Amino acid sequence: PGALTTQTRHALGALAERIGDHPQALQYLQGLPAPEQMPAATWQLRQTALALRAGRVNLATDTVRQLAAAQSAIPAAQVPEWIVLAQQLTDHGLYDAAQALFERALPHADAAQARLVLSGIARIHDARNQPLLAAEFYLRSALRTPTPDAAAAEARLRAGLGLARAGLGDDARAQFEWLLKNARDPAQIAVA
């Protein structure tokens, strides 16, 4: 790909990605500057996601370290891409990298996005078998809304389960009682 122009590499990389040949797409696109009209951080996020799909985990985590270390503000329009990539990293079991992206995005997230970020961090703690920390972040997510909704109820349910796993029965019971009074989902009520 080195002998090809940047524009050609972008076009071939996009084509390879479209047909699902992620290693080839990464080969074409790696090291290229962001396309016109695309912020550099968004390009790095997309390159990281592509590296994951191509099975290049080390490359993905190296890029995440760079993104997480940056001090610049994250524009509101870009926050969803940060959250999606952090969720993908979590799905791949790359918990440190995922948590770094979630924590970097949190100060720039609106209320709804902050709930997703906090739930994402809680999910990481769940995966690490840290039920008390998971419960803390699920509760922080649930409390980010002025009125209880389905997502808040789910977060409280998960917090209650985490508290029970951590041996804090009274605290877990308080979450389950809240669910019995406020949840609308019959499945959540049945678990509580």
Account of the protein in words:
With 192 residues, the chain is mainly alpha-helical. 71% of the residues lie in helices and 0% in strands. It has helices at 6-18, 22-29, 40-53, 57-69, 79-91, 95-105, 111-127, 131-142, 150-165, 169-182, 186-191. Helix 8 packs antiparallel against helix 9 (150-165). The longest helix is centred in the middle third of the chain and has 17 residues, at 111-127.
List the helices and strands and how they pair.
Elements: H1 6-18, H2 22-29, H3 40-53, H4 57-69, H5 79-91, H6 95-105, H7 111-127, H8 131-142, H9 150-165, H10 169-182, H11 186-191
Helix pairs in contact: 1-2, 2-3, 3-4, 3-5, 4-6, 5-6, 5-7, 6-7, 7-8, 8-9, 9-10
- Calculate the mean pLDDT score and round it: 91
**How many helix segments?**
11
Please trace the helix and strand order, writing H or E for each element: HHHHHHHHHHH
Unreliable spans: none
Distance between the termini: 57 Å
Q: Shape, please?
A: elongated
Question: Strand percentage, roughly?
Answer: under 5%
Q: Helix fraction?
A: over 70%
Overall structural class, as computed from helix and strand content, comes to: mainly alpha
Largest sheet: none
User: Rg from C-alpha positions?
Assistant: 20 Å
Total strands: the figure is 0
